[in-house]
Amino acid sequence: MKRILFLFSYPLIFSFSSAAQKNAPEPIGPLPSPQQVEWQKMETYAFVHYGLNTFTDREWGYGDADPKAFNPSRMDVEQWVRTFKQAGMKGVIIVAKHHDGFAMWPSPLTDYNITHSSYDGPKNRDGKVDMLAEVRKACDKYGLKMGIYLSPWDRNHAEYGRQAYVDYYHQQLEQLTTEYGPLFEVWLDGANGGDGYYGGARETRKIDRRGYYDFPKIHSIILRNQPQAIIFSDGGPGCRWVGNERGEAGIPNWSFLKKDEVYPGMPNSEVLGSGFPDGDIWVAAECDVSIRPGWFYHPEEDSKVKTPEQLVDIYYKSVGRNATFLLNFPVDREGRVNAIDSTNAVRFRQIIDAEFKTNLLRKAKVTASSERGKSFRAKKLNDGKWDTYWSTPDGTTTGSVTFTFRKPTRVNRLLLQEYIPLGQRVKSFAAEALVDGKWTQIDPGEPFGNIGYKRILRFATIQTTSIRVNFLESRGPLCISGIEAYCAPE
Ligand code: FUL
Q1: Which residue, 1, 246, 280, 362, is the most exposed by fewest CB within 10 angstroms?
Q2: CB distance 288 to ligand 1 below 6 Å
Q3: Minimal-distance CA residue to ligand 1 atom 10
Q4: pTM as predicted
Q5: How far is the CA of 49 from the centre of ligand 1 (A)?
Q6: In angstroms, what is the C-alpha Rg of the chain?
Q7: Could you give the C-alpha distances from 453 to 253, 328, 418, in angstroms and in order?
Q8: From the alpha carbon of 189, which atom of ligand 1 is closest?
Q9: What does the pLDDT look like over 392-448, one tens digit per residue?
C-alpha cells in the first residue's frame, strides 16, 4: 500500500518538467534531480538531537549509559512540531540513533533501545514506545516532512569495526526506511571510529572511512525504499555538509561536487563551503547549526541560546547563499523544546517574514539588455512564479536587467534566483542603484559571489529610483527566475 502511494505522488514531483517550453535554453549540467529542487525549496527545517545524552549531559555518549537514564517527565512531541511550524520550518530530521548506539525506536536488532528506558509515553501499533512513530504522527498532523539521522558510528555495538556491524547498520536502515512513511532526508554524519564501549570491550576501533560502511549499498537501500529522499553526507549524493557548524555557506557557493573526491569524514572539509565550480555532480550545501552551543541539551547552556537576530544572520548566510538552513533544537529533559529556544526561533521567523513582506520590484517597470523571445521576457522576473524565467539568447552569457520605480523608493535587500532545473549558471554579477541621479554600486558588505537557487544581499538603506543587476559572467545563457527587492524594517 505504501508503495502505491509513492507511485501516485511521483507525477507531482516531476511536474516542473511540464513547464519546459519551446525554444527553452539547453540545460547545462550538472543538473539537480527534481527531488533535489523540491528539497532546496524547503529552505529551512529543524533538527532534533534527543536521547540518552540529554540525561547524561554528554555530546558523544560512550555507549555504556543505562537506557533507564532516558526519563522525560513531560514529553510532548506535538509541542516540538508545533514550535517548528511556527518557526517556519518545513520538516524535521530526528536523530534515530547517535554515536552512542541508543535506538530511539523499538529496534528488534538491539536491546539498547527506547523500550528499555524509563519512558512511558504513547505506544505504537505494536504497543511499544517509539519516538519515531510519535514524530511521524505529529509531522502528519502539522504538515511537516520527516527525515532521520542514523549515525554510522556506533559506540555501543560489540561488532563495530567488523562486517557484522555493517550488516546490522544496513538492517537498521532497511527498517527505518520502510516503517515510518516518506522521509525527505536521511542524514549520514561523518564522525567515525574511535574509542567506545563496544559491547564491553572498551577500546579504540579504527575503520576505513571510505570503504567500511559500503556506502553504495547504503544509498541503494535508502533510494529503493525512499526514492524521494535526499541523502546527506559530506559528499552527498543528495546534499552536502557545508564544512562548518556555524551555519555559513561560502561565497561563491556552487551546488557542484566532483564525483568520488568527497567522502564522509574526509579531511579538508572547508572546500565544501564553496563546492567545485567545475564539479560534475549536483550536491547542494546544507548548513547545519544548533540553536545552542551543543547539539544535545545541557542546562548550563540555557543562557547561551542563539538570539532571534543571530538566527536571522544565519538565514542570510545559508538560505541567502544558495544553501539550506538546518536548525537544531536540543530537546530538554522534560521532553520539550525549551521555552527560550522556541521563543527565539518563532521570533526569528517573524523577523524574516517582516523583512520579506513586500517585493518592491513587483510593480516596477522592467527592461532587459536582451531576451530570448516571447516566453522568456524580463517581465517574468516580476510574476512571482518559480517556473517561469527570463533568459538570454544562445551565445549571450552576460546581460543586465533594470527596474524603474514610479517614485523614489527605500531599499535594503536584493534577492535573486536562478532557474536551477536548467543548471547553476551565473559565475559573477553585481548590482547598482540610481541614487540622486547617479549610478552607484550597491555595497552588500561581502562579495556578490554567484547565485544558484537563491542569493540575498543585505545593504544599508538607499533611496533609489532604479535598480540594475549586471550579470557579468555565466556558463551559458542566463536563466533567472526572480529578482526581488525589499525594505526590511531597520
Ligand atoms: C556530527 C556529530 O558528531 C555531532 O554530535 C552532531 O550529531 C552533528 C550534527 O553531526 O557529525
Answers
A1: 1
A2: yes
A3: 189
A4: 0.95
A5: 9
A6: 24
A7: 10, 23, 5
A8: 11
A9: 999 999 999 999 999 999 999 999 999 999 999 999 999 999 999 999 999 999 999
